[in-house]
From TrEMBL:
Lineage: Bacteria, Bacillati, Actinomycetota, Actinomycetes, Kitasatosporales
Highest taxon in the source lineage: Bacteria
Protein name: NAD(P)H-binding protein
NmrA-like domain span: 18-115
SUPFAM superfamilies xref list: NAD(P)-binding Rossmann-fold domains
Endpoints of the signal sequence: none
InterPro entries, per database record: Ergot_Alk_Oxidoreductase, NAD(P)-bd_dom_sf, NmrA-like
Length: 299
């Protein structure tokens, strides 16, 4: 175990004594990154999932089964943990959890000292309960658009070499999901983050065209950008099976991006000690998803 100032430690920062952290939503886009960052920092990780047999998490992670919508199922998982990473939704279509107060009650009883909450984009009983509690050190993580959202373009890029999107001039300060995990890992294991609300962004503002150009450079291929009208986009989303409330959210988010989503802040560097990763870095890491050979048409 490494302690004190250690140049081999992640980011050259002070390492705290090894702690055991419970990560909920551990198989999700952000949860996997929280797990990876905690492991890299030398901590023990317990990962909560509704199906432990299909979790596919790194070696060394203790995978336990539980369901946030049934909070008492967390009792064994909370035993012996010092920190807890929480998501605010459960069940289909990201329905807000209604079990937040009970989850927090169980966490307090288990002796959890630090909690991070991944903000779900709207009000939740869980986040409200955590914010109102002065018995634990909590931080709320409020990331803007995930760089991983670009994976939604992978199939159409592989099949046709193009991206079809509306509102292509919209600006985004999109964030690498690994940086969200890094901020969470620090807040869960180090002092000085209690009561913080961390807006987390990438280091630059990008249009849809900028993203497509960076993907093309990373993949070594041409990718065309086709701008859709709002009506064409709605038809495309409906054909993809998106519920009407999701379509309404996308129209608002893309057509009238809130200021917080198009404003770069330096939270990643302040909290972790290193600069936020760029979309070009993300694109290079995921280039294979956009260059796979399209399946052959049936004879």
């Amino acid at each position: 175990m490494r302690t004190g100032f250690d140049l081999d430690a992640p980011y050259g920062r002070v390492m705290t004594q090894t702690q055991k952290i419970l990560v909920t939503g551990a198989t999700g886009t952000v949860g996997r990154q929280v797990v990876a960052e905690l492991l890299a920092r030398g901590h023990a990780v317990r990962a909560l999932t509704r199906d432990a047999t299909t979790a596919s998490l790194p070696v060394g992670v203790e995978v336990v089964q539980g369901d946030l919508t049934e909070p008492d199922s967390l009792i064994p998982a909370l035993e012996g943990v010092t920190g807890l990473h929480l998501i605010t939704f459960g069940g289909p279509y990201f329905a807000p959890l209604e079990s937040g107060p009970r989850i927090l009650e169980l966490a307090r009883a288990a002796g959890v000292r630090r909690i991070t909450v991944l903000h779900g984009g709207g009000p939740s009983l869980l986040e409200d309960a955590v914010r109102a509690d002065d018995g634990v050190d909590w931080a709320v993580l409020m990331p803007v658009e995930f760089m991983a959202n670009a994976l939604e373009w992978a199939d159409q890029i592989v099949a046709s070499g193009e991206v079809r999107e509306p509102f292509v001039s919209r600006l985004s300060a999109m964030v690498h999901e690994g940086d969200i995990g890094a901020v969470a890992a620090v807040a869960l294991t180090e002092e000085g983050h209690e009561g913080q609300e961390y807006v987390i962004t990438g280091p630059e503002l990008l249009t849809v065209g900028d993203k497509v150009a960076k993907l093309a450079a990373a993949c070594g291929r041409e990718i065309a950008l086709v701008e859709l009208t709002e009506e064409q986009a709605v038809a495309q989303w409906r054909a993809a099976g998106h519920p009407e409330e999701v379509i309404g959210f996308l129209i608002e988010a893309y057509g009238n991006t809130p200021e917080v989503g198009r404003t770069v802040v330096d939270t990643v560097e302040k909290v972790t000690g290193r600069r936020a990763r760029t979309f070009a870095q993300w694109a290079a890491e995921h280039a294979d998803a956009f260059t796979a050979t399209a399946p052959a048409a049936p004879a």
